[in-house]
Amino acid sequence: MSPIPRRSLLKAAAVAGAATQFSWALGAQDAQAAPVSPAADADPVTLDWLEDGGLGAAPGSTVGVPWPRGVHRADQTFALTDATGTAVPVQSWPLAYWPDGTLKWTAHAVSSGDGKLTLTAGEAAAPAKKVTVDRSGGVITVSTGVITAKLGTSGATLVKSVTRGNTEIARNGRLVLLRQPEIEDGDQGTVRYERFDSAIDKVTVEQEGPVRAVVRIDGKHRKGGRSWLPFSLRFNFYAGADSFRLVHTITFDGTQEPGKASGDFIRGLGVRFAVPMRDAAYDRHIRVGGEGTGLLREAVKGITGLRRDPGAAVQAAQYAGEKLPDPATWDQRVTSRLQYIPEWGDYTLSQLSADGFTLRKRTTKGHGWIGAGGGRRASGFGYVGGASGGLSFGLRDFWEKYPAQLDIRDAHTDEAEVTVWLWSPEAQPMDLRFYHDGMGQDTFPEQLEGLNITYEDYEPEFGTPYGIARTSELLFWANESTPSAEQLAQQVDAVRVLPQLAAPPRQLIKAKVFGPGLYSEPDRSTPAKAKIEDHLDFLFTYYKDQVEQRRWYGFWDYGDIMHTYDAARHQWRYDIGGYAWDNSELSPDLWLWFAYLRSGRADIFRFAEAMTRHTGEVDVYHLGQWAGLGTRHGVQHYADSAKQQRIANTTYRRYYYFLTGDERVGDLMHANVDSDETFLVLDPIRKIRTEPYTPDRHALSVGFGTDWSGLVSAWLTEWERKGPQWEKAKARVLSTMETIAAQPNGFVQGSGLYDLDTGKFAIAAQPVVSVSHLSAVFGLNELCAELIDLVDMPKFNEAYLDYCRYFNATKAQQAARYGSDFGTLLLFQGHSRLDAYAAVQTGDPALAQRAWAKFYSSDGYAESSPWKTERLTGPAALVAGSEATWVSSNDTALYGLAAIENLALLGDKMPS
Questions:
Q1: What is the pLDDT at residue 191?
Q2: Which residues contact 727 (CB under 8 A, 6 or more apart)?
Q3: Exposed, middle or buried by CB within 10 Å (0-12, 13-18, 19+), for 166?
Q4: Structural contact between residues 617 and 468, judged by C-beta atoms closer than 8 angstroms
Q5: DSSP tally for the chain: helices H, then strands E
Q6: Residue 393 three-state SS
C-alpha cells in the first residue's frame, strides 16, 4: 500500500471539490438512502432453540430477529405464541433500523416457553409475574415476581440481598481480587498477596421489564487508596424466574514488565456471596458439580453410612435433600450421638487445567483437608443451603477457561460463604509479561529482520497486556429448598450450555441482512455442490477437533485458534512469532458466522460465540494509548507490535450482537466509533514508510482496505443502531464512501489523507496504483455488499466493483485499465468471492466464469487437496489425535468464505 505523500496535500485540496459531483447531499435524509423496497408480507417467524431442552432452568433468553426493509415501522409491537397457540409473554425492542426508518433487527426476551415459538406483529402478552425495578434509598430493587434482589449503588457490596418470599437466600454479594506483588521464579521465597474488594463507581438501569430487566454496575477493585482492574457487570433478571445471570467483564490495567519479578499479578479473581444457614446441620446440603450432570451430594452433618442406622427412609431423605423427620423418631442410638458426627463446613473444587479437577473438604479452618474425589472436567456448578432454601451457582465455560475454582466455606455456621473463582487462587499467578527480551531488535531494520525469520513484528514495550479485557458469565438460583436431583441437573445444563433462541436461516436470507445474497442454505443437489459442502463440513469439524486435541483452552486463550501448522513437529506453531494465535487473521470469525447464518447449526454457533467473546475482548485494547486497536497474530494475544484496526474490526462482533442482543458486545462496537482517532497515536505502516510522515489530524494516512473496513463497520453499526453518535457515524459512512469513490483510481488508489474533523478523504491529484492482497480479506467485501444495498451512491458502487473486477484480472488487463499492473498478489481463491459479487452486480458472465476458475484452480485449497486427516500417536505427538498438515487457518477462512459466497451468488453457474 503506497501512501499519498504529504506534499500532495495542497494539490489534493485544490481538487477536493470534485466530490461535489455526487447527486446526493450529505445530511439530506431522503436522498442518501437507496430506494425502499416494496413492503413484503410481515410473515410470522418461527423461532427455535439451538439445542434440545428449551429454556430449562435458565432465567430467560434473548434473541435477535431480522426483518426485510419496509416491513415494520419503528414503533411496531410483537406477540409470541407457542406450538399450541398459547400466548407467551415477550419483551421486544429495536436493535437496528433500515435507512428508511423501518425495523431491521429487533430483540425479543422470553422467560418461558419450550419448543418452537412463533413471532408475529401484535400486542405482547403480559407475564403473570412481571419483573419490576425500583430505585430508592440508595438501593436498586429488582423483583422477578419470585425472587427479589437488592443491588447496591455505592461501596463494596454489589448485591445486598437476594430473597425468595420472606426468606433471605443470599447477601453481601461482592467481587474479590487477590494481588500478588511478586513472582518467585526459583524454589525459595515467601508468597504474599493482598485482597481488593469491589468498589462501585456507577450504576445504570438499562432495562426494567416487564419480561427482562438489566442493571449495569461499573467500578474498580479497591484496597485502601489504590483502585485498579476496572469491572463492568450486567445483572440480567427475567419475569417469573428464580435465578439471574451475571455478565462479568474485567479490563487489565496493571503493570507487568518483562524481566521483572515485581508487578500486579492476579492471584485470584472471583465473585463472592454470603448464604444464611438456618437449618439443622443434618438438613444443610452441599452439591458440587462433577463431570456432565454428575454431583457430589452430601449434608454438612451426614447421617448415612454410620455404624448405627437412623433408618432407611431418613438416609434416603437426606440424600435427596429433603427435610428430615424429627430426630426423636430416629433410632436413638444415632440421635443420642449426633454431637459426635463431624460437620463439614468447607468444600473446594479446583479445575487447574482443562483435563483435571480435584475436590476436597474439611470440617473448618485450621484442620486438615480430606480428598473427596475428582475427575476430568467439572461443570462449574455448586449449591449450598438446606431444607428452608439455598443458593445454586455456576460459571459458564468453567473448565474451558481454566484455572477456575468453587469454594464453599463455613457451611456449618450461621452464614456460609460461596466464592466462584474465575481465576483460581491455587493456580500460578496470572503472568502476562512479554515472553522474550527482544533479542536485540532495537531498530526498525532489526525488527524487520526478525519478522523475516519468525514472522513476529516486534517492537520494545509494545507487547503489553495493558487494556485487554475478558468477559465471563455466571448464573445464580435462589431456591426455596434444596432442589431435587432432576432440578439440579437442569441447572447444571443451563450453566454448561446457556439456552439460546434463534431465528432460522431462511429468515436471515429473506431479510437480506449481512450482505444480501452472500449466503444461502446448504445445497447438495449436484455432485459439485455436495463436494464443496463436504469440504466445508470437513474444515469445521477439523478445527473443532483441534481445539480439543491441542487443548486450545484457558482463561485468556479459549475461543481462538492457531494460525499455521508445523508439519515437522506435528504441532501447530504455538511458539513461533506470527504463526501462533490467529487473532482474527483473514477473518475466521466471518467464516464461522457465515457458516452459521446459512445452516443454523448449534455447534457452529457455539464455536463462533466463543471466538467472538475472545477476539473482541482479548485481542483488542480497551484502555490506554492503543484503545480501539487490535493486535496482529502472535505467541501472546497482545505480543505483536502491529496494533491495527483490522483486528478491532466491528464487523466480527456484529453477527453475535444482532443474533442475541448481547449488551457487552454492543459496548465493544460503540467504543469503536471514534477509533479513527487512533491514527493520531500510531502509524500502522511506520516501519516501511519511505518518506517522512507525522500524523496530522487533517491529513492522516488511512488505507481503503484493512483500515477503512474496520472504521466503517463501527460507523455503520452505530448508524443502524441509532446509538448516541449515530448522526456522526452516518456522516462518516457517507463522506468516506463519497471521497473514496472520488479518488482518481477509487479503491485501487490504496489509501488517502483523512481529515478527522470533516470525516473526508482528500482527493488525490494524481492516480496511484496501490493494491494489497490483504485489503479485502478483513470483511471489506461483506461490508461493501451491505453498503451498496443500503446507500444509493452509483460512483461508490462503480469504484468497488472495479476493484472486484480487476484484482483477479491478468496483469495486462490491470495495466490497460489503470496504467500499470497491481504487482505480485496472493489469495486469489479468497478473492474469487469478489469476482462472484461483481458478476451478479454487473451481469457479466465472464466474471462468473472467472470466479469459479479462481476458486478451483489458483491458490488455497484445491479439489486435489487430501481432504482427510492422518492419525497421530505417540511418540510423534504429545496427545494422540489427527493432523492435516496441508491445512492453514488463512486458507481455511478464505476457502470457507469463498465457498459460501460463491455458492450463494453463482451456485447456478458452476462449471459442469
A1: 85
A2: none
A3: exposed
A4: yes
A5: 22, 36
A6: strand
